[in-house]
Write a structure and sequence with these properties.
This protein has a three-stranded antiparallel β-sheet with strand order 1-2-6, with no helix packed on it. Helix 3 crosses helix 4. Helix content is 51%, strand content 10%. The mean pLDDT is 88. The longest helix has 34 residues, at 102-135. It is mainly α and 231 residues long. It has helices at residues 2-6, 40-44, 47-59, 69-97, 102-135, 141-144, 163-189; strands at residues 19-20, 26-30, 35-39, 154-158, 205-208, 213-214.
């Protein structure tokens, strides 16, 4: 029993090795690159409003029940602008470090959103059909709707970034994480302190090493004399 407590088992991702031919040329190898992935709510544009609602309700939790709908919306809108500015700055930084333009970033975001919407529509359609078969009656789309996994995942915005770009992204992520840790430490020291929790968009960003395999000789130019080309 003591040995079981002391033994720690953890699954780690494997790394596939290189494959060489008889002339020691690399035929296959894993790409040692990084992608910048962003949480789907930030890509879809829902992050700013959802977080603004949470923060505003927490800040005015004692006054919230007695507020009118107009006052609530006004406070949420004011807080939402702060988070939208963070998101705009995020896309500006990614466009700069990725050496691309804003249109390319927007096109990638829209492509991701369209893909997730297609997956969600197919999932809802299958679930609607299944519920109708079980109940023997028509089931409305809204009742069959269910969020899919892709809506809670992060998706790649930049691929194969440079080492310099990776260091810049790491610094932004580290600063946001440090801000979160400082807040948690202050809350442990003083539970009565104002609940001004940091909500930084860079905590929704991560660097991932993609599982991509590179085959240098997968396609090669070949010179064929014209008489030997098939008709």
């Amino acid at each position: 029993e003591a040995e079981k407590v002391l033994r720690h088992t953890e699954r780690i991702p494997t790394v596939r090795g290189r494959i060489f031919d008889r002339h020691q040329r690399v035929l296959a190898e894993d790409e040692s690159t990084f992608d910048v992935v962003v949480a789907y709510p930030v890509i879809a544009g829902d992050w700013a409003y959802d977080l603004a609602s949470q923060v505003t309700k927490a800040t005015y939790r004692n006054l919230w029940p007695g507020m009118s709908a107009e006052d609530r919306d006004s406070l949420i809108t004011a807080q939402q602008k702060v988070f939208e500015q963070q998101a705009d700055t995020l896309w500006d930084v990614l466009a700069e470090v990725g050496q691309t333009n804003h249109k390319t970033i927007e096109d990638r975001k829209n492509k991701i959103v369209r893909g997730v919407h297609r997956i969600s529509a197919r999932h809802t359609q299958h679930r609607q059909r299944r519920l109708q078969e079980q109940r023997g009656e028509s089931v409305p789309w809204a009742e069959a709707f269910e969020e899919v996994r892709e809506q809670h995942q992060s998706h790649a915005i930049l691929h194969n970034i440079s080492a310099q770009a990776r260091r810049i992204i790491e610094r932004f992520i580290a600063e946001a994480e440090l801000e979160q840790r400082r807040y948690a430490h202050n809350r442990r020291l003083d539970r009565n302190a104002p609940d001004e929790r940091p909500s930084h968009v860079w905590r929704q960003v991560a660097l991932e090493r993609p599982d991509r395999r590179n085959y240098p000789f997968e396609a090669m130019p070949l010179m064929v004399p014209p008489p030997h080309v098939p008709r």
